[in-house]
Amino acid sequence: MRLRSFHRFLSDESGATAIEYALLGTLIAVALAATFAVVGDSVNAMFSGGTDRAGGIIAEQTAKIPR
Length: 67
Known about the structure:
By secondary structure, this protein is mainly alpha-helical. It has helices spanning about 1-10, 15-65. It has a domain at about 35-65. The radius of gyration is 29 Å and the shape is rod-shaped.
């Protein structure tokens, strides 16, 4: 009786698809987190550089306005 129940447990494949999707989702989440960690600093620097340049141009143009 126990052996039959154990064999039925081992051969049961219900829920396998859900587990596969969960593993795939976890893999995608880890890959995205790693990508954001690597690329995040360079993207931040790129946008910071652009805003710094824009701020400098605005300051230069504002300084040229006679008061």
